[in-house]
């Protein structure tokens, strides 16, 4: 018998280099409205030719601007407006509508051309006064909307615009709930605590301004600083002005008004809007 032989072992496999994980395919960006060729034409066209070349779209654009529509800041440039909304379909009766029917402002990616006669279309229309406007109907709620119709109101940011005293906040919340019960169901989403606060605050600001102006204390060039600084109406005016500016940041449909030079126009717009919500 021969000697025992060592068991044979399989030859060692060469070490495999670590394979990098396969890169996930990136989602392709959505094509621009109107197609790439149309978008390139808009981008390459001189500014001086845009309004003449897209005259019908320019008419709709001017109406939005004149009626203070809540638009993205990028739409201050007509070129970007065109790129976002795409070419206007032929014929009359077309408007820029909210694509999914939710929200309270036009946003890039959530706008499209729609027929004004479409019963589901939600779009900005001219208001009763000059240089003002409003939604043709209250925007619908969506599944992710933070203020659905079945709640009493969103007070999550109340500390930024309502005096911090708990008694004052409680009194305002009670007044808001009583007022909102009078609001028509299709306007409850727009009838927010922020709106009611701005509605009441702007009227108070106008009264304080008129009182100070009657005593010659509104013009900083002619008013005696010591008289104005010690006047109780001035300190209240400054306090309410700061709170009104804070709450207007939450209401883009009113954000284009100046609290200094357009206070009366804003007050009339708020009065008409509040009346529309209830009657």
Could you explain how this protein is built, in words?
The termini are far apart. The protein has nine helices and four strands. It has helices at 36-44, 47-53, 55-66, 78-85, 166-180, 193-214, 225-229, 232-248, 263-278; strands at 94-98, 111-115, 124-126, 133-135. It is mainly alpha-helical. It folds into two domains: 36-135, no CATH class; 158-278, no CATH class.
Which term fits the overall shape?
A: globular
Number of individual domains: 2
> Main sheet: which strands, in order across?
1-2
Whole-number radius of gyration? Answer: 29 Å
| Count of helical stretches | 9
Structural class: mainly alpha
Query: Could you report the average pLDDT, rounded to the nearest whole number?
Result: 80
Task: Report the β-strand fraction as a percent range.
Answer: 5-15%
Q: Biggest sheet, open or closed, and with what strands and sense?
A: 2 strands, antiparallel
**Share of helical residues:** 25-40%
> End-to-end span in angstroms?
113 Å
Low-pLDDT runs: 141-151
Order of helices and strands: HHHHEEEEHHHHH
Number of strands: 4
Q: How do you describe this structure in short?
A:
The protein is mainly alpha-helical. It is built from nine helices and four strands, in the order H-H-H-H-E-E-E-E-H-H-H-H-H. It folds into two domains: 36-135, no CATH class; 158-278, no CATH class.
């Amino acid at each position: 018998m021969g000697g025992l032989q060592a068991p044979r072992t399989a030859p060692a496999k060469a070490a495999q280099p670590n394979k990098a994980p396969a890169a996930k395919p990136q989602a392709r960006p959505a094509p621009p409205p109107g197609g790439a060729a149309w978008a390139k034409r808009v981008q390459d066209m001189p500014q001086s030719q845009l309004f003449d070349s897209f005259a019908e779209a320019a008419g709709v654009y001017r109406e939005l601007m004149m009626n203070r529509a809540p638009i993205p800041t990028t739409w201050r440039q007509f070129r970007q407006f065109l790129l976002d909304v795409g070419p206007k379909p032929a014929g009359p009766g077309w408007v820029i509508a909210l694509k999914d029917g939710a929200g309270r402002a036009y946003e890039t990616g959530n706008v499209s051309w729609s027929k004004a006669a479409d019963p589901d279309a939600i779009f900005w229309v001219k208001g009763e006064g000059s240089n003002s406007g409003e939604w043709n109907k209250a925007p619908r709620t969506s599944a992710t909307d933070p203020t659905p119709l079945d709640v009493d109101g969103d007070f999550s940011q109340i500390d930024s615009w309502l005096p911090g005293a708990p008694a004052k906040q409680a009194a305002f919340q009670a007044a808001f709930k009583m007022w909102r019960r009078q609001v028509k169901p299709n306007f409850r989403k727009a009838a927010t605590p922020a709106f009611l606060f701005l509605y009441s605050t702007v009227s108070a600001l106008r009264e304080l301004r008129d009182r100070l102006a009657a005593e010659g204390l509104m013009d900083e060039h002619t008013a005696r600083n010591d008289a104005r600084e010690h006047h109780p109406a001035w300190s209240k005016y400054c306090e309410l002005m700061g709170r009104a500016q804070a709450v207007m940041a939450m209401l883009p449909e009113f954000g284009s008004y100046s609290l200094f030079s357009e206070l009366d126009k804003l007050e009339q717009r708020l009065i008409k809007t509040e009346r529309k919500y209830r009657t």
